Amino acid sequence: MAGRRPAVARVRQTRLRGIRRRIGVAPLTGLEMLQAAVAILIAVVVGIGALLASAANGDRQDAVREEIKRSAATIEDVRLVYGDEAPLAFRIAIARLRTEELRRAAEQAGPDGSAAAVEAVVQEQVAFRLATGEEGTGRLADGNRYQTDEGGFDVARRLADVRSDYPDLVALNPDASQADADGLGRTAWMLAASTAVMVLAYLVVALLWHRRTKRSDVSASSNVEVIPQPWQARAGRREATTVALLVWILATLLPWPELYFADQEQHSQTLAARNAARISTVLAATGLQEGFVGDSRRAQLTVELGSLARELGVLDAPTEDVASQQRVIAAADRAVAPRLDAVRRAMTDLPDARDGVDPATRAALASSPVEWKALQVEQSRQADLADRASQRSDRMVLAALLSALAASLAALAAASAIPSPSRLWAAVALLVGGLVATATALFG
Question: What angle do CA 332, 338, 344 make, to 5 degrees?
Fold first, then answer.
């Protein structure tokens, strides 16, 4: 009795296999379950890589937007201080300093200082009227908040205060957003690159598995292969299955370089866009600051030339009394020149960290034509790199399309009851085309 049980069990198993064969269902083997697991794992890894790449692209767009916002805010603040407030404040400083020197000269000249005294009142009224217009505005020339001991105004501190009015804009850090995006992009294509290890590991395991086990005709003929297995294919289908396996390997590995080139394209495009914004920032900021430097120099030179012109004008004075009066005014203007020069230099000095101005604004104001040229060269270089990466990415898309078509033809050739050389050679041609497209993208 006990000897008959194994025989009965074998008969039942044979009948069950026959039923499953007739209805087209066969039990999954361990290798087939491994195929499914590998295919699912590769799909998950590539999907995660694509999501990370999308997130990296979003962060790069944030970096560009932050750069543009910071650029606009910097230009506007520099324009307000150097283009609007500082020139008026320097004119007020000139009038006040001239008032002091004219009064001093008038007191020392005695009777000959009456004209200088009148001119002092004129300059005092000029300074008063200009300063009155600034009262309550909080601007550079409003009250004594920014006035210095030398008689000028602290332009750098005013710029720091203006920048601090919008701390969110000052705190923008597009470099950090760019670094985060680059990290995500690098992780994305490295994840995609890990599929090469999975493919290689699967092929090694599958070959070893095939050598150690005997192929079952049921599993080989009835089950659908998730990954083509030419070592288990029947005669007549082995060539088509081999082509299908090569196509599967190519299609599985393509997301790696495709994500890499797409990441490089986005990286370079972001840097090119940011450099374009930085170029406009440094050109505008330095232009405004240098415009104030030139305006203040002209204002100072006007005072100095006025002194010289009075000295020459007294040669044609109708009386010696008139000539003496004008010489006193000329002497006062000569005396005020060094003070004006000191005030001008202090007001036009570039801000530093001690003034509280943020690094980005300081760098923009302190930039030189050499740096402008370097930014332009780098912007052009990044644009070229983005264009090359885009072309390579397009070739990878073409390779993916050719591999998809090759996979379809190889599957049809492998599934045909009668071998179809035309389908097989068409699949081979498409596979070669995909490989050529991939090679030109990688090495072109």
Answer: 120
Q: What is the mean pLDDT of residues 375-389?
A: 94
Residue 346, pLDDT above cutoff 70: yes
The pLDDT value given to residue 2: 47
Query: Among candidates 191, 189, 183, 157, which has minimal Cα distance to 355?
Result: 157
Give the chain's end-to-end CA distance (angstroms, integer). 75
Please check whether residue 341 is in contact with residue 300, taking contact to mean a CB–CB distance below 8 angstroms.
yes
Angle made by CA atoms 47, 52, 58, in degrees to the nearest 5: 130
Q: How far apart are CA 304 and CA 306, in angstroms?
A: 5
- Alpha helix segments (H runs only) across 213-354: 217-222, 238-253, 255-313, 320-348
Amino acid, res. 108:
Q
Look up residue 326 and give its two tokens.
């004008």
Measured CA to CA, the distance from residue 334 to residue 434 in angstroms comes to: 83
Would you say 335 and 303 are in contact if contact means Cβ atoms under 8 Å apart? no
The rounded percent of the chain whose pLDDT value lies above 90 is 60
CB half-sphere exposure, 42, CA atoms < 13 A: 25
User: Alpha-carbon dihedral of residues 39, 45, 47, 49, nearest 10 degrees?
Assistant: -150
Residue 386 contacts by C-beta under 8 Å, 6 or more apart in sequence? 264, 265, 268, 269, 272
- φ/ψ of residue 145, rounded to 5: -60, -45
Rg of the chain in Å (alpha carbons): 41
User: Global pTM?
Assistant: 0.80
